[in-house]
């Protein structure tokens, strides 16, 4: 497990990797339609960071947007001891103002497949993301073998600007953003045409020539080798499924943690998830094969994304003879659950504590408030403050927390199968204060949305921690009755993102051993924007010295000025 | 002149006027096409402020945008003693972050026709503006009589978002934003249809019924009365001309200063200008009349805006029988110069000092830089700093000013009739440091742009001051030779905005008696965005105590923190 618990030993080999990035708006045509997006150093997606476990990553991030702040979250990196580098606006740091540079400095302590993305407004959906891959430290080995790697960063793509999307989500009456126009693989997709038109009645064949920004992605491979596919999803809305024509996939890693290997025909990837799967190129080498990515969990109105698995020396432009493989039916939840339930920890993974000190039960509901539609947790829809929590709590600015703390339970008896009896919600800063080194269970309870017979999948992502996924259940969480008996304490997987299935519940456990202020939220961008999250303020008194630049805004800036005037 | 020089006497009658505003994005259809714009309290344009000379205006401005900062500039208000309330991002204050509230508090010391607008990025072009009208103090009289008022806030309107516009202006290759799609009167216009289709071959009659956001503006008047039309322009690009069918206009005020009344058929209004004109309803009362606003100075691709002068008791919906009056030919500069040159101070206006202590000559050129197109002043294209000047200069943060100060002259011999021989420019913070109570002349020199035979009109606006417009000339400024002889020191008008005509120069004079940091720039939004401005840092050591909230960002925030960490 590389330097996981052996930081001192690894320190010698580890090194600092420096990056200078500039974030700016630019014209780009990810799916053939031109749009203004947010890129880094003129690239979309942003540059891939590649490091070794134990390395220190140093990113000097200049904001070259004109009027917008920016932050970058390093998704899956726990930021042990550096909570101010977690890159969450209003939570871990002041947004970086235009023309300012902020230096992110943090250790990637654990090998795995990660990514990074904007975490302010809906800037992730505007294209602010890229891959972050951490290899094992020198002298360490992965617990499986492979001959090469293929990287697949998956996303979805809207033609409307995020500004228009955000106004719609905040409007009365509410305007839903609809389904994305395209799915992208490594920032490339095809709108209004198909790479495999011969197999798609009524569609036009895409022009695949040249190096257009929407050109198909080609993964060159050699026959009879084993490849590690690193797959991560930073979609705004879509839950995805990936399948490679004729090839089996062996799942070996989830969210930067090794899992007990298992073989499948396809994998589900929710927004915020990352996986490594092994693929052996054991098929007829005279053909190329399709990689197909389709939508799950919502009636798809977005065409699957395709890429070419190119068996060399075949030409990359030689389209696969077979039709693109179909992903499972969008509403085949049994298929999805079967996949998710098979994800278990690889032998050697640290086991969870046998018991917890506290259980926080979070009911996920869709609600109304003053003509707006919101997502709420225990009837509070999250609204983030002007001054980030980490600084204001560290500096003891009491006014930054509401007097009434949010509830640890929603009680028993809530009918998760029907729209909320009382659909009204409130907004607030639903901050849960966690004591140092306590073991915390969180039960996420899904429910029916405002419309009858609607309950969606929500992938919840925790910052600052991996957690053990102890179990899942259908229907209402039963409470203490039989709770412990239903948990897997033997080999639960460690992850940073866990899904709740429609009408079901998911239980996770983690140890509050990383002082900081951490977001825990649905990773679907419009859902987070509509309030679907909570905050964990964890042993803030133990947080080390916060860099000035992380607190040079709002109340934390003015609190340090001696008088009312300067 | 009300409380101009009599603040103490007026203080008794003056009062504070409080406003609570919230700035947010919203859907709106100013010309029938829906778009996301920036509104205030759900309105577009923002609420009109109406006050009396000597009043204190207090605006608690909450930023409810999602990721963008915001400021509001009170155009024409000199902010005597309150330079931090001038509302210029990067210059007078830190941009107000999302969810923050900043309180603008300033005295409107002088009656007149003003307006306010965003002054960050191109937020003005996104719709962030409104009217500000200051009446004479109680017991004072205007120096002319009228029976009623009509308010006309003029703007132009693009269907592309400002984000797309800004990216295009900053791109390599450069992408010009083109001409606006519509002209708006009080935020209303008509795209792709005409209110007077009967007179406009090939056009469709607009649907004028109901209270649509693009419904025609109606000005109800009674026959045989005199009305004061308050006209101001906050256009992004367009220079305008206003004409009212069959009616003469008597110009009595320009930019909050009384002028020697003169009668015209039409008035030019450049972006940043404001005028009061008197109109007597002495025409056939059985008819209504068109108010027509057209484009000047650029080959118009935007249809004139129309409004209805509604002689009561005629129905407002009764369209004028006559065709809308035509505005002058766009390139009839002789007409424009004749109008501008007629604007002279009303008797009683303070005269300028007879001589100046310093003359700053500013050559306006269009240039190239590393594949970008820029506007430059004495070969420096303005780039604003992350930390606003007022705070950083007041606090003596030396690193905020470049070591080399910009030049006071561009020398003689520059050929203004041709594209620049050396089109390359540099970028920088072109800050001119002004000594307290010195009299400063500024000569603005226009020139040929990058393309042959192109020289545009540029309306320059000065913050913190009115200035006397001493004179205009065609061609290259002659330097000392005959300079004084060409100036009008007898009755030059006081203004805050002055135009330079193609290939010509304009000379202004002001007394540096208002400590602060003041922008001086072309009021055309894309030109300013491309660097067309300079900064006057005026006796900053005499600036009073700056409110914390104006400096709670960047280097001015961190400078006040004792250590590197918090």
TrEMBL record, chains A, B:
<dbReference type="InterPro" id="IPR001117">
    <property type="entry name" value="Cu-oxidase_2nd"/>
</dbReference>
<dbReference type="GO" id="GO:0005576">
    <property type="term" value="C:extracellular region"/>
</dbReference>
<keyword id="KW-0677">Repeat</keyword>
<keyword id="KW-1015">Disulfide bond</keyword>
<dbReference type="InterPro" id="IPR017760">
    <property type="entry name" value="L-ascorbate_oxidase_pln"/>
</dbReference>
<dbReference type="GO" id="GO:0042542">
    <property type="term" value="P:response to hydrogen peroxide"/>
</dbReference>
<dbReference type="GO" id="GO:0008447">
    <property type="term" value="F:L-ascorbate oxidase activity"/>
</dbReference>
<protein>
    <recommendedName>
        <fullName>L-ascorbate oxidase</fullName>
        <ecNumber>1.10.3.3</ecNumber>
    </recommendedName>
</protein>
<dbReference type="Pfam" id="PF07731">
    <property type="entry name" value="Cu-oxidase_2"/>
</dbReference>
<keyword id="KW-0325">Glycoprotein</keyword>
<dbReference type="GO" id="GO:0050687">
    <property type="term" value="P:negative regulation of defense response to virus"/>
</dbReference>
<feature type="domain" description="Plastocyanin-like">
    <location>
        <begin position="24"/>
        <end position="135"/>
    </location>
</feature>
<dbReference type="GO" id="GO:0009615">
    <property type="term" value="P:response to virus"/>
</dbReference>
<dbReference type="InterPro" id="IPR011707">
    <property type="entry name" value="Cu-oxidase-like_N"/>
</dbReference>
<comment type="similarity">
    <text>Belongs to the multicopper oxidase family.</text>
</comment>
<feature type="domain" description="Plastocyanin-like">
    <location>
        <begin position="151"/>
        <end position="313"/>
    </location>
</feature>
<keyword id="KW-0479">Metal-binding</keyword>
<keyword id="KW-0186">Copper</keyword>
<dbReference type="InterPro" id="IPR045087">
    <property type="entry name" value="Cu-oxidase_fam"/>
</dbReference>
<dbReference type="Pfam" id="PF00394">
    <property type="entry name" value="Cu-oxidase"/>
</dbReference>
<dbReference type="InterPro" id="IPR034259">
    <property type="entry name" value="CuRO_1_AAO"/>
</dbReference>
<feature type="domain" description="Plastocyanin-like">
    <location>
        <begin position="422"/>
        <end position="539"/>
    </location>
</feature>
<dbReference type="GO" id="GO:0009506">
    <property type="term" value="C:plasmodesma"/>
</dbReference>
<dbReference type="InterPro" id="IPR033138">
    <property type="entry name" value="Cu_oxidase_CS"/>
</dbReference>
<dbReference type="InterPro" id="IPR034267">
    <property type="entry name" value="CuRO_3_AAO"/>
</dbReference>
<keyword id="KW-0560">Oxidoreductase</keyword>
<keyword id="KW-0964">Secreted</keyword>
<dbReference type="InterPro" id="IPR011706">
    <property type="entry name" value="Cu-oxidase_C"/>
</dbReference>
<comment type="function">
    <text>May be involved in a redox system involving ascorbic acid.</text>
</comment>
<dbReference type="Pfam" id="PF07732">
    <property type="entry name" value="Cu-oxidase_3"/>
</dbReference>
<dbReference type="GO" id="GO:0005507">
    <property type="term" value="F:copper ion binding"/>
</dbReference>
<dbReference type="InterPro" id="IPR002355">
    <property type="entry name" value="Cu_oxidase_Cu_BS"/>
</dbReference>
<comment type="subunit">
    <text>Dimer.</text>
</comment>
